[in-house]
Amino acid sequence: MGNARNLADNLPLEGHLAGRNVIINGAMNFSQRQGSSSNVGNQYVLDRFAVYKQNTGSTYTCSQNSVTDLAGFSNSLKMDCTTADTSIASNEEVKIVYKMEGQDLQRFKKGHATALGFTLSFYAKTNKTGVYCVELYDRDNGRDVSGSYTVADTNWNRYTISFPADTTGKFDDNNGSSLELSFWLVAGSAVQGGTLNTTWRSATDPSSATGQVNFADNTSNDWEITGVQLEVGSSATHFEHEPISVTLAKCQRYYYVLDGNKTSWMYPINTNNASGYRRVSIHYPTSMRTTPTATASIVHSGGTSGVDGGVWISLDCVGIYVNSINSESDYAYVNALTADAEL
Asked: Which end of the chain is more exposed for a tag (fewer CB within 10 A), N or C?
C-alpha cells in the first residue's frame, strides 16, 4: 500500500539517470485539445491522460487546473464530480487511464528471469479521503496487478506504489499499447471483493480495485493529480522535470493541433494555375506514432470553408488540396488542423 512520504534528494539506484520516467506529460503541462471538458465522456482532455467511464450515472468536469500550493508544479489534472451517484452498479467504473508503447517499456525486462519492478509516484489532492486503487494492465499478455494509496487529509501529498517484477510475458517491442495505468475513482462490486490483487496474474476483474472509495458520492468531491512518474526499480526518485520543449514534442507524437486563428495567413495555399486547385503541405513538428487521423479547415476567398480537394496524410506531414479556385487572385489558407495518433 502506498503512503504519503517526503523523499530526500537521491539518485536512482536502478535504470536511467535521465529519461527514467516513462510517463509523458506527468506534470500536466499540456492540454492541446481543450483546457476543460464538462460532462466529460471517454476522451482525452489533457495530453496523454484519458477519462474512462462505464455504466455510471455520475458526471464530471475534467480540466487542466492551475496549481499554486505545491512547490515545483504549476498544473494538475482535476476531476470535479458534478452529478453524484451514491448507488454504484456492479459494472460501474470511472478512472483516469494512461497508455504506454511497448518499445518504451523494454527497460523493465518483463517476461525475463531478470525482470525488474515498477515504481509509481505521484502527487494527489482530494477532499474525499479514503483508499484509492491503481492498476497496471499488461495488454500484450493479458496480465494485471494492483496497488493502493490512502488519503488521510485534504493536502497535496506524494504517494508511491511499488509493483513487483513479472517474469511472465514480454512486452511487445513496437508502437502499440502494451501497458495501461489506471487511477481508479469509482469501482463497482465486479472489480472489488476479496483482497486487493498485488501480484501479477492472468487478468480478471475481481479484486482489481478492492476497497476503492466512492468518489462519486457527492458533488463537492474534487480530485487532482500531478507529478506522475513510473520508473524501473523498487524505490521512487524525485520527479524528473524535463525541458518544456521536450515534453511538448513527446505529446505531439500522439496529437498535434494547429490553429491559424482565422485572421492570419498561416500556411497559405500556393497557386497551381489560374483556374483549378491549390495545395499546401504542412509538416508536423515531429513524426507521429502512426499515420494519424487528420482533419483540416480551409478558408478561401470564395467565401466557403472546408477541404474540397482532399487530404493526403503520412507520418510526417499532411497535404491539403482545394479545388474551388477561379483565378490567380483567389486565396486560401489553413485555418485549423488536428492530427490524432493516440494509442
From this structure: N
Q: Considering its fold, how many domains does the chain have in total?
A: 2
Residues 311, 296 contacting (CB under 8 angstroms): yes
What CATH number should be reported for the domain holding residue 181? 2.60.120.260
The amino acid occupying position 94 is: V
C-alpha cell read off for 143: 496480465
**233 inside domain:** yes
338 φ, ψ (degrees, to nearest 5)? -130, 145
| Confidence at residue 280, expressed as pLDDT on a 0 to 100 scale | 78
Give the mean pLDDT of 244-258. Answer: 96
Residue 222 half-sphere exposure toward CB, CA atoms < 13 A: 12
Nearest alpha-carbon partner for 125 in 53, 89, 72, 76: 76
Residues 201 and 299 in one domain: no
Taking only the tens place, the pLDDT of each residue in 168-210 is 999 999 999 999 999 999 999 999 999 999 999 999 999 999 9
CA 44 to chain centroid = 7
Residue 68 burial (CB count, 10 A): 7
HEC readout, the chain: CECECCCCCCCCCCCCCCCCCCCCCCCCCCCCCCCEECCCCCEECCCCCEEEEECCCCEEEEEEEECCCCCCCCEEEEEEEEECCCCCCCCCEEEEEEEEEHHHCHHHCCCCCCCCCEEEEEEEEECCCEEEEEEEEECCCCEEEEEEEEECCCCCEEEEEEECCCCCCCCCCCCCEEEEEEEEEEECHHHCCCCCCCCCEECCCCCCCCCCCCHHHCCCCEEEEEEEEEEECCCCCCCCCCCHHHHHHHHHCCEEEEECCCCCCCCECEECCCCEEEEEEEECCCCCCCCCEEEEEEEECCCCECCCCCEEECCCEEEEEEEEECCCCCCEEEEEEEEECCC
* pLDDT tens string 41-52: 999 999 999 999
Instruction: Residue 148: give the domain boundaries.
Output: 36-252
Residue with cell 482489481: 208
Q: Positive or negative, the Cα torsion across 7, 11, 15, 19?
A: positive
- Stated pTM of the model: 0.91
